[in-house]
Amino acid sequence: MASPFHIRPATEDDVNTILKLIIGLATYENEPESTVKTTPALLRENIFEKHYAHTLLAFEGTPDAPGTPLGMALYFFNYSTWTGRPGLYLEDLFVVPEARNAGIGKALFAELGKVARAKNCARLDWSVLTWNEPSIAFYEKVLGAKRMDGWMGMRLDERGIAELEKFSSRNE
């Protein structure tokens, strides 16, 4: 039988745990830890003060006797002009390697589903690296998720965002 675990919303006291799990995710995704620019101060500010994002944490044990952190789901809300309703965007999902295949990923998605329903979200979206076949299989076969064929992710980094100013119609 699998060890008991529980999931709860993160609190400000969990900042170091969240950072540790983010670094674990970066390692899993074959990114050097130096690429993680998040700091405890940035997590505190952006998750717990400004509420730009939210985090669910999975722990070994029970709520009364929590143990080792096992995983996290970091998410935020967006808005769909097509549905006229909010959506939930899952930025990061991570389960530590030694705790995989124990139902933690499914349980994190179940909690995300509860949040999405409570907020009347029309969709729950996320991205997955194309090489991550184990996760893709889980999303499609277990969760029933559909690929977003015809869509490509796009991004501007800080420099690109700053360069948008050249297109501004306002002379400041």
Give me some keywords for this one.
globular; alpha+beta; 5-stranded mixed beta sheet; 172 residues
Q: What's the SSE blueprint?
A:
Layout: E1 5-9, H1 15-28, H2 40-49, E2 54-61, E3 66-80, E4 85-95, H3 104-118, E5 123-126, H4 133-143, H5 158-163
Parallel strand pairs: 4-5
Antiparallel strand pairs: 1-2, 2-3, 3-4
Helix pairs in contact: 1-2
Question: How would you describe what is shown here?
Answer:
The protein has 172 residues and is α+β, with helices and mostly antiparallel strands. 33% of the residues lie in helices and 25% in strands. The chain has 5 helices and 5 strands. It has a 5-stranded mixed beta sheet. Helix 1 packs across helix 2. It is globular, with a radius of gyration of 18 Å. It starts with a strand and ends in a 9-residue tail after the last helix. The mean pLDDT is 93.
Report the biggest beta sheet as strand number plus sense, adding barrel if it closes.
5 strands, mixed
Strand fraction: 25-35%
Helix content: 25-40%
Mean pLDDT equals: 93
Output the radius of gyration.
18 Å
Outline? globular
Q: Provide the spatial order of strands within the biggest beta sheet.
A: 1-2-3-4-5
Helix-strand string: EHHEEEHEHH
Q: N-to-C terminal Cα separation, in Å?
A: 64 Å
What structural class do you assign from the helix and strand content?
alpha+beta
Number of helical stretches of at least 4 residues? 5
How many DSSP E strands?
Answer: 5
Uncertain regions spanning at least 5 consecutive residues: none
